[in-house]
Amino acid sequence: xxxxxxxxxxxxxxxxxxxxxxxxxxxxxxxxxxxxxxxxxxxxxxxxxxxxxxxxxxxxxxxxxxxxxxxxxxxxxxxxxxxxxxxxxxxxxxxxxxxxxxxxxxxxxxxxxxxxxxxxxxxxxxxxxxxxxxxxxxxxxxxxxxxxxxxxxxxxxxxxxxxxxxxxxxxxxxxxxxxxxxxxxxxxxxxxxxxxxxxxxxxxxxxxxxxxxxxxxxxxxxxxxxxxxxxxxxxxxxxxxxxxxxxxxxxxxxxxxxxxxxxxxxxxxxxxxxxxxxxxxxxxxxxxxxxxxxxxxxxxxxxxxxxxxxxxxxxxxxxxxxxxxxxxxxxxxxxxxxxxxxxxxxxxxxxxxxxxxxxxxxxxxxxxxxxxxxxxxxxxxxxxxxxxxxxxxxxxxxxxxxxxxxxxxxxxxxxxxxxxxxxxxxxxxxxxxxxxxxxxxxxxxxxxxxxxxxxxxxx
Length: 459
Prior knowledge:
Elements: H1 2-28, H2 38-48, H3 50-69, E1 76-90, E2 97-115, H4 117-185, H5 190-225, H6 249-259, H7 261-281, E3 287-305, E4 308-311, E5 315-327, H8 335-402, H9 407-441, H10 447-454
Antiparallel strand pairs: 1-2, 2-3, 3-4, 3-5
Helix pairs in contact: 1-5, 2-4, 3-4, 4-5, 4-7, 4-9, 6-8, 7-8, 8-9
């Protein structure tokens, strides 16, 4: 009986440890702050995330760069002025004199390209490169949507796992107390108590690990959204998972051809490479500009004879000129030829990159579709398994009370039930994130999809 006087002390210590951990967890993740929805945390991350903000800044930079290329098609106007003074000293024995001269010149020059195929191709390239940066911004936004959702539901899954572990601890504690009472009255062996104690000890270590996992997941979400002590809203009780919008994976793949950012980006890169070939061939073509120039020149003159001032003659000249200037390259040391060959090779690479992007998107979309379809089936199976595990536990408890089942049977049934509950909660979250990843895989993911999931959360 000495052994069983020690066991309650150990149990009390472990219970106190668990209470301490629970209190610490509640203090670290206090519910005093209002819970945030998925949309609220996404909006916070959108204003904070460095990757998304970087893509947004790059888009703005490319927008200005596209406007820069328009300058090659528009007139250029310049104004230059010159103010020149000369002091001439002539040292003659009989007639020394000093001459003061000055010139004021203002020149106004304007030029308008009439035919410049290279500049026009550069302008078309800049517009397509702007579209590329727009598709990259869309991809960055979709990536942020998925990352926030993943971190959000990872934290919910971790919190659910902790709750399951604690509920299992309470159930094991009750079973441990029952085993001790039955042993004292002689209806059970010491083995039942030892088995229950071993499960209780194991559960305590699992709770420590689950507590730490919650803290880590919370830190990840906090850092992603730029907030402190985030508290995500859980799924509403009885909420049903949305079914797949399309049952055929080929429809998802077909839709990706016109919507996926990486395919659009690769297609635009091919068009840019084709324009680069056009620019290379333009190296053989002339450049024609219209130029006009207006010059206003004032010449000042004065002579000082032996200290006597004499006003010289001043003059003013106005000149206006118009010209059409053509520059035709004749030979550039094989530069143009080699540039053409280089551009053709780069165009082939861009075409291969487009094929690779299509194949990658096709594989990713099919894989994501199978993951969601499998996840939905797994949720249904786990729901059935949870009901069966509950029935099994109830039957084992009844059998234990009437003496046809032993304690280990009840403990195993409890372990199976709580493990199934944890896997079911995790599977539901995986399906929700998987549907977002499926839409990201075929390029159709948008904030509206996040709103649909947000509507499943508690109000």
